[in-house]
Each structure stands twice: as structure tokens, then as C-alpha cells.
Amino acid sequence: MGNIKMHIINQGKVFKGSPNSELAKSCFPFAVKLSNGDLIVSFQAASVKNGIDSKSLISRSNDNGLTWSQAEAVFDPTLNGKKGVLHLSYISELQSGKLIAGILWCDHYDDSSLEFFNAKTGGLLPTEACISFSEDNGKTWSKLKAIEKGDLGTIPTPVMGPVHRLESGCLILPFETSKSYDDESVWLHKACYFVSYDGGKTWPKYKIVAHDPECKIYYWDHRIANLGRGKLVDLFWAYDAVNNKELNAYLSSSTDFGENWTRPEKTKIVGQPWPIPIDGDTFAVVAVDRNFTNTIKLYLTNNFGKDFNAAEALIIYDNKKAATVKTNLNDQLVEMTNWSYGLPSGCKLNDKEILIVYYAGDSAGVDINWCKVKL
After folding, report:
1. For the chain, what is the domain count?
2. pLDDT per position as a tens digit, 228-262
3. Which residues have a Cβ under 8 Å from the Cβ of 253 and sit 6 or more positions away?
């Protein structure tokens, strides 16, 4: 691809963690721009990452990201009369003023002594993929509704991104299959999405984007970008379960509204990726690399992901610390709980600018940061 230069034009904080409080550690930010011009960033805040006191907060900007409102917990964590814990939410706009949120709800209160993640088995506490609606640009939200999982049974189904409305008329909500808390069997991981044909009232089926039946490669944390005209891309944080190491990010694509997907292929992107639609076949990918460079970088492609400007990737954040060595899958999963920076995402602001959000901090407090990039 051609020579494409990007540079940072401004940066700041959406939210600052308060040390020694229930809002000390923030993570999992997601940004969306509404049709009225408002920006909303949703994220988790807790005393410790994924703790029982986790809350899904949102902050809003009406000046293109220069200033941000005080963060609020706008979602009721009650599901079917049972109080739970909200680990994250991803907000998208269905039409002007009407928003939908994909939310990860966790049944943590049955045994508050347990961690969200079982370090011995790699399993999760019971979780549900839920949705909530807003008719007033995100000021108020409906009660949570869990998506029926059909033949997936009771296994945890963590939400992996926002609801996308396709030009075919359907909605899709990405998720992945996990393991029950005490399940010591091999993790049968699948990168999937639920499908709705009636505006999110029902979700009668799900589709699998990527799955290795031999469980040699895990296609984790898949993030879908809708490029329009039936074109979708899905980026995966890939893990080699045989040799116990992270791989470069993998990419799968569809040109028929998600009916069929290409076999995932390795890219030049290093780390945990998130795609951001720009225009046509052009999209950006922001990724955190915790194994080699300890940076968050922004990549760009203008040919539907066939190639990326890896050599010219823009550094968004540099942690300047040595990477830790993980010797097996469970070490890798446990390490996720301790990370103090990462999981970037972003959204298009206009034809020449994008907004990146990510978390970064230290043992005392972790903040949500924003960075504006000119293409």
C-alpha cells in the first residue's frame, strides 16, 4: 500500500482512577460518535480489575473530545430480578436518538469469595450477553435483557463488541464461547455473533466466524468492523495453544453481510487488535503489544486488510517496561488480570481524524485516556 502518515494532534483523559477506592482501576474503554455529534465512552471501573464492585460507566463529550462529563453508572445491573455485576458495555446507534448497548453481565454474588476468572481451569463465573435500549441518546436505559443462547446451553458467552446494524437489515452482536468456572476440560473456543432480524427484540440464531476444532489456535477477543456494502472484517487476538505463545493478529473477512467468512489469516499486526472503519475498504487497527514492544500502535490499510503499514505504525502509548514471560495458557489468562494498560478501541470523528481510547496506569490507579489522530 502507499505511504500513509499519521500523527497525534491532541490527547488527554476521559476518566482518572481514584486510588484506594471502588473507582481505582478502570479498563475496557469503548468510544462511539452519535449522529448529533456527541461522543460517548463506556468503560469498567472497580477497586480491582473485574472485581465484584465493577461498574460499567459512561462519560460524554459534546466538544469533540476536549472535555468529558463526570462518569455515570447508567445501567441497572439487575437481570430477571437478580443483582449482578456489569463488566463492560458497548454502545452503538441504531438511528438518531435510539441507542443499543451490548453488555456483559456476571452472576458474581452467589459466592463473592470467587474471582471472576478461575486461574486453575481457565473458566469464568456465569455470564450473560445482554442488551439494553435508550430512546434519548443514552441518558436513560431499559432493563437488561439476556440473549437466549440456544444450544450453547449455560456456558459463559462474553460480549466482544458493539451491536452492528448491517445494510441487510439485521443486527449482529459479537461474543465468544468460554468455559464454566470449574470445567477442567479443553477450552472449545469459538468466535461468534448473535443475529437479530427484528431490531434486537429477539436473537434467534448465532453464527461462527472462527473456530479451530483441534484447539491449536484460539481466535480470542474478536472485533468486527462494518465497512458497508456487505463488507465486514473481523480481527482476532490469536494464541498458539500448542507452543504457548501469542501470534500476530489474524483477520477474517466477509463480502456478503456475514453469511460467509474467509479462513482467518495472519497479519503484520502484533498484539490485541481493534478495527476502526474509515471509508470504503480503508480502516485502521489499534492494537496493544505486551510481549515485544510494550506499546499501543495504530495501523492503517486501504485495501480491505490485504496489507497494513506495519513499518509506519503510529505509537499511541509506550509503557517502557519489560514484558513478562508466560509459560502456559493459564499463565497467559492470569496475566490479563494484572495488566495496567491496553485494550484500545476507537471511532471515526471525520474523514481525517479518529479518536483512540485506552486504559493505562499503575498499581495505585488506572485511567481512561483519549488520543486524537490525524490521518
Report:
1. 1
2. 999 999 999 999 999 999 999 999 999 999 999 99
3. 231, 232, 233, 234, 261, 262, 304, 305
